Amino acid sequence: MKYANIIVNISHENLDKTFQYIVPEALMDTIAVGDYVTVPFGKGNKLINGYVLELTDSACYDPEKLKEIAAVKTDSRLVEYKLIRLAYWMKERYGSTMINALKTVLPVKKLIKEKESKSITLKLDERSAAERLELYARKHQKARERLLKELISEKELDYRLVTGKLNITAATIRAMEEQEILTVVKKRVYRNTADGETEGLKVKLNDMQEQIAESIKDDYARGIRKTYLIHGITGSGKTEVYMDIIDAVVREGKQVIVLIPEIALTYQTVLRFYKRYGDAVSTLHSKLSDGERYDQFERAKKGEISVMIGPRSALFTPFEKLGLIVIDEEHEGSYKSDSMPKYHARETAMELARLHNASLILGSATPSLEAYYRAKNHEYELFVLDKRAKEARLPDVKVIDLKQELKDGNKSMFSRELKRLMEDRLSKGEQTMLFLNRRGYAGFVSCRSCGEVLKCPHCDVSLSEHKGGKLVCHYCGYERKTDKACPKCGSKMIGGMRAGTEQVEAAVKKMFPYASVLRMDADTTKQKDSYERILSAFANKEADILIGTQMIVKGHDFPYVTLMGILAADMSLNAGDHRAAERTFQLLTQAAGRAGRADIPGEVVIQTYQPGHYAVKCAAAQDYEGFYNEEMAYRQLAQYPPAGHMLAVLVESPDEESAGRYCEALAESLKHDIIKGCYGRDVRLIGPADAAIGKINDIYRKLFYVKSADQGALEGVKDSAEEYTDARKEKGVRVTFDMDPLRGY
Ligand code: ADP
Ligand code: ZN
Ligand code: ZN
């Protein structure tokens, strides 16, 4: 006898259980995990559909009472099988219902009518095109100018790429077609990457790139599958290396998933892939409708595309013959999901690669501590690219001590040096970017005279200021009254930092009334495509100064930027969680890498109250290794990941009292088992505490952390917590888990 555990395909939380069925004789040899089946359900034996999650030889219930599977519905088991296995792995690792895990990996089924694929070609000859371009520039017809410029250089452009990423309206295209400037044509079908047509677009890899690419391709050809980490500074040519390896994998008839942070999924990046792979490449992004996403997934399943580029959810592209996964900017926080299961794309990709027998390449200028730690432990193979591919000097970085500025009587948010350099750039017609580092800002308190930051005595993270003059630690709940004067130097200049992008904009306009300024933050990018619009405008030299949050430091080339000012390097240093220094180092290093990418050398000014902090010093010196060593020592001391593992358990409820009570009781119950040694010896529970954001949308949030060197032990704790919550459901109370969280709660 064979039994199948089946999850019924209904999105209802209470059905998050497997039901056991007997596998009938006729299906015995063919049924497989992942199959989509029909089963009789409930008293009325209504026929419903479900997925096979597990096959066993023994029954968990009385076999007399079990029913038989009615039929297997599909035979495309390969992809579903792997996706379901992956969902199961995600549920086990990260904690979630199986339904939620399945919803994460399986696309929502929504059909849209298939759009005809179209492209746009230039109708004018070279001279008239150039004349027309001048005319557009004179008349400030920016959209037309942008499109014509691209057409002149590319000859043919994908219609969807133009209306999407290039942000040109259909009306504009129509108008230009009527004026006989361009033609919209039905697309040539399928440009194969192996047919030599793309040869001309390849750069010749330099020796360092070649060595990496050859080594990985050689492994691939010999059937060796593993994870590689390419540590390469910005502009060192990582993307060219990826593409060279992708060529080899695609030539074998295999498929490739390329993950890029959403924010870096700009026109420039996507175009590079389109140029090389034509119709064989497709992109996903979060603004696609369910129907469009489903359409892309269907194309992938039918084998119509070979390369899928997208943010973390592109990992679930149903490729039948996945050969390679690439994760660019591997350290990016957006690779971790915010909703259950709170999976990390890096780990999930490792599991997916294992299921498909595929290779995984990670790339970053500032690898996450996790990835680098594993590379050092030889779990990943490490490659280094430490020179820029094109001749371009690394920028000159100055660190300015804001405490000194204050001592010298300068209370403005701009140091004298930064102001002088901005003036200089304005007079030369070169561009400046001002980066306000507010990432993860959680209301820390610091001294403007000596730079001291108030920290938790138990957790070594910054305390956060709450209403009523309280200082709170969001890891352990430690709490005390805020200081009136600095405990170190006695200065009264103590308090939170509150500068926002709007204040910066106002200050810049006051200082340089004649300068044109663009601002990019959550407010100015609410509208669809406004992000891309602001970046293109700035890249086209339509403004002198761009002010923004971390959005401006990623994924876009600005050839005329020769000055980068980092206004408050400290803000993200004191975010109140154990990754604050890592994030700061990454942001500062990336921001510094933005200046002077073309032939003009760039300058970077880092303004900070903590010029001696290793994250600031190492970023200024572009010293990754130095940063890694210091940071790893801290993580080891406190057993923070990757030195150990950490599980965050978040309890939410609209009723504060029940959130608190439930959280306490759950923590107590787990503590009890921990003390008994149920999960091994080295497991510690920290908290409960109020979350950093204690209330969101009138939902109260309490949490605790569990730490251990052994991830398996934490999975055990999580399983017990799930059992506890399953047995004690309380109205309005929701419990979620985050394994190795990337941020504080
Ligand atoms: P990264 O991904 O590391 O930031 P890219 O692959 O985007 O680097 O390369 C940066 C720039 O250098 C790109 O314009 C790319 O076309 C160019 N480039 C990369 N490798 C080479 C090479 N071997 N020869 C010439 N140009 C190169
Ligand atoms: Zn002080
Ligand atoms: Zn603490």
CATH homologous superfamily caption of the largest domain: P-loop containing nucleotide triphosphate hydrolases
Summed up, the helix count is 21
* Strands in their spatial order, largest beta sheet: 12-13-11-14-15-10-16
DSSP strand tally: 31
Which stretches are low in confidence, meaning pLDDT under 50 for 5 or more residues running?
A: 10-15, 188-197
Q: Average pLDDT value?
A: 86
User: For the report, how would you describe the main beta sheet?
Assistant: 7 strands, parallel
Fraction of residues in helices?
25-40%
Span of the ends, CA to CA: 49 Å
Q: Please identify the structural class as seen in this structure.
A: alpha/beta
State which percent range the strand residues make up: 15-25%
Tell me the number of structural domains. Answer: 5
- Gyration radius (Cα, Å) is 28 Å
How would you concisely characterize the structure shown here?
By secondary structure, the chain is of the alpha/beta class. About 35% of the residues lie in helices and about 20% in strands. The radius of gyration is 28 Å and the shape is globular.
Describe what you observe in this structure.
- The structure is a single chain.
- By secondary structure, this protein is α/β, with parallel strands linked by helices.
- It folds into five domains: 3-105, 3-Layer(aba) Sandwich (GIY-YIG endonuclease), CATH 3.40.1440; 116-188, no CATH class; 207-390, 3-Layer(aba) Sandwich (Rossmann fold), CATH 3.40.50; 392-441 and 497-635, Rossmann fold, CATH 3.40.50; 645-739, Alpha-Beta Plaits (2-Layer Sandwich).
- The strands form seven sheets. It has a seven-stranded parallel sheet with strand order 12-13-11-14-15-10-16, with helices on both faces.
- A hairpin with a 2-residue loop joins strand 29 (683-696) and strand 30.
- Helix 3 (126-138) runs antiparallel to helix 4 (142-154).
- The radius of gyration is 28 Å and the shape is globular.
- Mean pLDDT is 86; it is low at 10-15 and 188-197.
- One zinc ion (ZN) is lined by residues 447, 449-450, 452, 486, 488-489, 491.
